[in-house]
């Protein structure tokens, strides 16, 4: 995990860091299980969120492979990213 300034902080096991929308306790458990399809939508004002929180981080995801004693990178595509021209550059990639 990295700070907003890009400084590496630490490797951590994920909990509910990616679940910013309100959810039940069961949802918080279920969406982390293998093979589960989970959809939860909400609107978050990023400006307000960043102003009110001091614990905002960037994450680079890895899968721990104990058999190989290594970490495997997990590619992530944010397909709803909109650039300054109004285009969706990650769609279809």
Structure commentary:
The protein has helices at 25-30, 46-52; strands spanning 62-65, 70-73. β1 (62-65) and β2 (70-73) form a beta hairpin. The mean pLDDT is 82. It contains 2 helices and 2 strands, in the order ααββ. By secondary structure, it is mostly loops.
Annotation keywords:
globular; little secondary structure; 2 helices; 93 residues; 14% helix
Mean pLDDT: 82
- Strand element count: 2
Distance between the termini: 25 Å
Radius of gyration: 16 Å
Count of runs of 4 or more consecutive helical residues: 2
What topology, given as strand order, has the largest sheet?
Answer: 1-2
Low-confidence stretches at least 5 residues in length (pLDDT < 50)?
Answer: none
| Major sheet summary line | 2 strands, antiparallel
Strand content: 5-15%
The geometry reads as: globular
Q: Which structural class is indicated by helix and strand composition? A: little secondary structure
Helix content: 10-25%
Write the layout of secondary structure elements.
Layout: H1 25-30, H2 46-52, E1 62-65, E2 70-73
Antiparallel strand pairs: 1-2
Nutshell version of this structure?
This protein has 93 residues and is mostly loops. The protein contains 2 helices and 2 strands. The protein is globular and about 45 Å long.
